[in-house]
Amino acid sequence: MAADSVYRITELVGTSKKSWEDAAANAVNAASKTLRDLRVAEVIKLDMVVEDGKVGAYRARVALSFKYDPKK
Question: How many CB atoms lie within 10 A of CB 9?
Fold first, then answer.
């Protein structure tokens, strides 16, 4: 990372019926479609949706940093 760069951070929640890893990857994949210069993805919270006493979905809250360019 360059010392004179500025990065913005946004949070997304990814979901998956398979795993927390897939949920986090889904958040990054979705973000990469609209955010340029993604730099770091940090999983900040994991939880599950419970349906009828069983895990219905895994959820990962992810903080994503990307290079900030106020001109764009």
Answer: 12
Classify 22 as helix, strand or coil.
Answer: helix
Q: Which residue, among 61, 55, 58, has the nearest Cα to 42 in the 3D structure?
A: 61
Give the pLDDT mean for 9-26. Answer: 97
Task: Express as a percent the part of the chain with pLDDT over 90.
Answer: 76
CATH number of 8-67: 3.30.1660.10
d(CA 17, CA 25): 13
Residue 50: left (phi > 0), alpha (psi -120 to 50), or beta? beta
